Amino acid sequence: MNVETDPSSAGFDGERLKRIDRHFDAYVDDGRLPGYLAVVSRHGRVVHVASHGDRDTESGAPVEHDTIWRIFSMTKPITSVAAMTFVEEGLIDLTDPISQWLPEFAVPQVYAKGSALRPVTEAATEPIRLWHLLTHTAGLTYGFHHTHPIDAMYRAQGYEWGTPPGLDLAACSRAWAGFPLVFQPGSEWNYSVATDVLGRLVEVLAGKPLDEVFAERIFGPLGMTDTGFWTKETDRLATLYLAHPRTKQPVRNDAFGALGTARPDCFSGGGGLVSTAADYHRFTQMLLRGGSLDGVRVLGPRTVDLMASNHLPGHVDLEAYGRPLFAEMPFDGFGFGLGFSVLEDPIKAKTLSSPGEFAWGGAASTAFWVDPVEDLTVAFYTQLLPSSTHPIRQQLRQLVYQAIVD
Predict the structure, then answer these.
(1) What integer best gives the mean pLDDT of the chain?
(2) Model confidence band, residue 328 (pLDDT cutoffs 50, 70, 90)
(3) Which residues contact residue 207 at a Cβ distance below 8 angstroms, ignoring those fewer than 6 apart?
(4) In degrees rounded to 5, what are phi and psi of residue 9?
């Protein structure tokens, strides 16, 4: 990633932009982060790139502009875009029950009461539909939430921070379908394996593995040559660190360190990709430009607008469902669309951004947002689990918007 234009030509104060560097350099210098890379773009041109520290602190290998990062849940918007290409082709509708293609979800059961060992269930009153997967309103969950008896059932079967060895996405989808839902489909919001199920649905619609679908429909057309479920250039892959529970200092995480270094058993549409700043920049620019970039159209502009609208039941914000996982960002004022969070009320969110901003982040503290009002995209990369360790996303918003002076 290289700066493409003078900040002043894009409405920025260059000296104020340098506050990003000073702020996050301090994170590295005092040991809170191993290293980072931040990219700010406006009016289609990169105006600022900030980086400091190491992609591997043990060897001293520095963060470079072509460093490869595990983007975890920044995979979700890519899977969502892939799914919407099939909607645009008329192969599936947002209201279609997913059981038409995934018969394992034909008769979902919903948790009513009881423990993880002896749950009492009732029949679902509504089938799981495509829009439920895209909005995390399907009633699925994650094992790592630790907030519901069904979460414990996921963990007991090996679905906490990943999937059991040897199971592909089809097998995992069948396993998830066997767990009770935590609520009736469409009634609430719960961050979940819904996007992984969405990835399996995409595979069935396409008749090919998810990695091939991504390559054909997104990565190839956009020139995202360094994005995939694994990389052979492991020397460029940043090491993954876990925040020490007491000191918050980064500790090398060998348990997840192999992620992205070899072809996985399960192609996780919810969190399995690795990418570079340059590649993901092209993806966000495509979204900002209404689905098209450099003469290549991935989605229609009205589809992108629909995805970047709040689809939550009752048009409420995420705060209505609590924040069991995302202490690093406010949920007041943020709704959820088809694959992204959507900012509806900056005043309620107490954040410097624009109504209509859509965004998401990854478990290792990566993040991005797209602001159509300011014609702006921003992305941040590091490798520290969990993403709630430091308030990086809120601080980055403040630092970017305070530098806009036009």
Answers:
(1) 95
(2) low
(3) none
(4) -70, -15
